[in-house]
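Ticket #4471: structure export looks truncated?
Reporter: QA, pipeline team
Priority: medium

Steps to reproduce: submit the single chain below to the structure queue and open the exported record.
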Amino acid sequence: MKNVDYEAPVKRKPLISALWGLIPIIVCVAACVMCALVYDWFSFSMILLGIVSNGLANVAIGNGRLTIESVKEPAPGAPPGHGIMMGEDEVIVIKGKERDVNAVTKGRFVLETRSKHGHIPAEEG
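Actual output as written to the record:
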């Protein structure tokens, strides 16, 4: 594993990558309109609910800052790190420095959102 930079900023995707996101939006809106044209109001309302809930989730996540929290510095003299992740049909073995393996095996993603006062709590003080 390569070195993990816990302080690295999240890279924004270029505009062309964001435009690919329009494809499922257009398909969902078209499906919603077609359901309304054939008077299938249940399907229309479920697709519309999915569009609205997905949009609200993207607004909430898009206004936050995604970071990784983990044990950044292992104990002095810790041996090289090794981690095993097991699924139903697969096993993944991770080898590298203890500090870097901890990001995967013990890390978690944290979404920091703005409070009602307009600031991100982690930036206080």
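Status: closed, not a bug. The export was complete when the record was re-opened. Leaving a note from the reviewer for reference: Residues 65-125 form one domain.
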